[in-house]
Design a protein that fits this description.
Blueprint: H1 2-8, E1 23-26, E2 29-37, E3 42-46, E4 49-54, H2 59-91, E5 100-104, E6 111-114, E7 119-123, H3 131-143, H4 152-161, H5 165-178
Helix pairs in contact: 2-3, 3-5
Length: about 180
């Protein structure tokens, strides 16, 4: 009976969509979203507008594609920040192997370092913040590959690599409040 009910139960109906009023933040810039129908899902940014072409003009497809776009785009931003810091660290005599990265929505942290696994996880919401805030979190997590605690040596390395890190930390707190992401 259960299988019969599963096979023949009505599918949830998709919610048609023709436009969205939502705005998103990406790397400190606020974008409006324009959607249009097309043969496949795709995206492009022009000025302060994120254009999404959707194969299925439904709320469910829009939400799924936007989440997917955010993950892909944020991975690129985080990787670029890691690459930049690894070069700077090496120039200053600090050697760290390039870590793998993962992106998740986290409620209590902007990033986490798993130095024994060679992994940094980033909060997906960090991609909304200005680039200097992303770079600050990236530096912080990379420094944990050198010192796995928050002691004076750790903060000394952070200061040598970027003397303005405290300014970026404060800016991150302000940007999070403005965007409704209080930490």
């Amino acid at each position: 009976m259960g299988l019969f009910r599963y096979i023949f139960s009505p599918r949830p109906t998709a919610t048609p969509i023709s436009s969205v009023r939502r705005k998103i933040w990406f790397v400190g810039i606020q974008y409006s979203i324009k959607i249009e129908a097309g043969s496949r899902n795709s995206s492009r940014i022009e000025g302060a507008v994120l254009h999404l072409t959707l194969k299925e003009m439904t709320r469910e497809n829009f939400e799924a594609y936007l989440a997917s776009w955010y993950r892909r785009a944020s991975r690129g931003v985080f990787q670029k920040s890691i690459d930049m810091w690894l070069v700077r660290m090496e120039l200053m005599g600090y050697f760290v192997d390039a870590p793998r990265i993962k992106v998740f929505e986290m409620s209590r942290a902007w990033g986490r370092c798993y130095y024994t696994k060679g992994l940094i996880t980033f909060n997906a919401h960090l991609a909304r913040m200005p680039s200097q805030c992303i770079d600050y979190i990236t530096l912080h997590e990379l420094c944990h590959f050198l010192i796995n605690s928050h002691n004076s040596d750790f903060y000394g390395i952070m200061t040598r690599l970027d003397p303005r890190w405290r300014q970026w930390e404060d800016e991150l707190k302000v940007a999070a409040r403005v965007q409704g992401l209080t930490r």
